[in-house]
Amino acid sequence: MGTVGTGVARVLLQHGDRLARRAGRPLVLRRAVVRDLNRPRGLELPAGVLTDQLAAVLRDPEIEIAAHLVGGIHPAREILLQLLEAGKDVVTANKALLCECGDELFARARQLGRTIAFEAAVAGGIPIIATVGQCLSANQIVSISAILNGTSNYILSQMARENWSYDQALRKAQELGFAEEDPTLDVDGSDAAQKLIILTRLAFGVRATLAQVHRQGIDRLDLSDLRYADELGFTVKLLAVSQLVGEELEMYVQPCLVRKQTPLAEVQGAYNAIGLVGDVVGETWFSGPGAGQMPTASAVVADLIDTVAGRTQLNYPRLEWWRDPAPYSLLPAERIAGRYYLRFQVLDRPHVLADIAAVLGRNGISIASVIQHEAPEASSHDATTVPTVPLVIMTHRTTEGNLRAAEEGLARLGSIRPPHVRMPVRG
User: What DSSP string describes 113-149?
Assistant: First the structure.
């Protein structure tokens, strides 16, 4: 009965007749298990529903299905296993748990003849799990390009629209409830990577761990990066990408330069968007609220309906969480290829660009364009001080490995001041 649980209870209590028609049977809220019975909920529950004892659910034979809205790994894993072993089908919204323990949980559900539905674990109110697992099952997905974290997208949108600093935009996101007090998992790319791992497993049958996903967050970006991107005809978005490259799967979560007036570039605020390319259907796009009480509750209740109606059981084999061996191997991060945006803070003196170009060239990186705005004229009293200026380089196509190798040489140049930024270019 946290934010999402309260939303689920509200839908069940307020729209019972509609849900019963769609499920073929009534969905009756029998128990809500909470830690604190006295905490205000903002919702009046029928007498006897609220309990602080999980056993009240486990031992009740009339309860057939549980909405598992518990975050983290422990005790969420243990609770979900107890529910399955007590004969309950489960609907969960816990993406972190599925990433870390999905194989174990789905295998146990199969052994027990139970199901786990998890539409709410990815992209909130966007029905992307059903789309990938069922609606596009005639296709081999060849590419996923997505904005999967609404907090990061809100921060980047506000920086671009309002000329806010990263810290200003983050504080506003926290005030509005988009970001947690500790926003690390949102802004460092971990949340988006967990969701991408789930989609990748459904679309490609590939098991990936969080450590295997090449990941970079938005917390190192400066407002100047968004301004330079705009000058170059791009916007900056935190993208989650899985795509086939031959018989290998390229996978990463990074802030990227996205060409203006393309679908992903137009997604603003705390919204999510997913672009899928299937070998039969071609390119498809899905967008909507990726988090929040009622969008996520919408996905949870839809899974409850599908489970009661038997659709989850019918579609379960298509999810292939237990498929082995995987049909594709992960492309090593060093071989991820593309164009890149590089921003350095450099001393404004002769030969700096030539030195940087030489290091890049020795590592197989060709420069496509350069932006260096004029530094302010030094005053007479500080004429001995060499000012620093931003230097922006757009590369031709190269690899992540080449850039990593070049960074070792660039670190030895006395003319570059940390930190520097690099982002892939999409489009």
Answer: T--EE-GGGSSTTS-HHHIIIIITTTS-EEEEEEE--
Binned at pLDDT 50, 70 and 90, residue 322 comes out as low
| Cα 205 to Cα 327: distance, rounded to the nearest angstrom | 7
Quick one: pLDDT band at residue 373, thresholds 50, 70, 90? confident
Mean pLDDT to the nearest integer, 142-148: 98
DSSP 170: H
Mean pLDDT, the chain, integer:
94
List, as one string, the DSSP characters of 333-346. Answer: GGG-EEEEEEEEEE
The domains of the chain, with CATH numbers, are: 3-121 (3.40.50.720), 128-289+322-330 (3.30.360.10), 334-426 (3.30.70.260)
Determine how β-strand 141-147 pairs with β-strand 271-278: antiparallel
Q: What sections of 86-237 are H helices per DSSP?
A: 95-112, 128-130, 150-162, 166-175, 184-187, 190-204, 223-232
Minimum mean pLDDT among 29-33, 298-302, 323-327: which range?
Answer: 323-327
What pLDDT sits at residue 380?
47
Q: How far apart are CA 413 and CA 401, in angstroms?
A: 20
Structural contact between residues 319 and 110, judged by C-beta atoms closer than 8 angstroms: no
Global pTM reads 0.95
172 is catalytic: no
User: In the chain, pLDDT over 70 holds for what percent of residues?
Assistant: 96
291 alpha carbon, distance to own chain's centre:
11
The CA distance from 334 to 392, in Å, is 22
Q: Which of 88, 95, 172, 195 is catalytic?
A: 195
Closest CA to 232 of 193, 270, 258: 258
Helix, strand, coil share of the chain (percent; to 5): 40, 25, 35
Determine the residue type at 15. Answer: H
Say which residues have a Cβ less than 8 Å from residue 170's Cβ, sequence separation at least 6: 155, 179, 183, 187
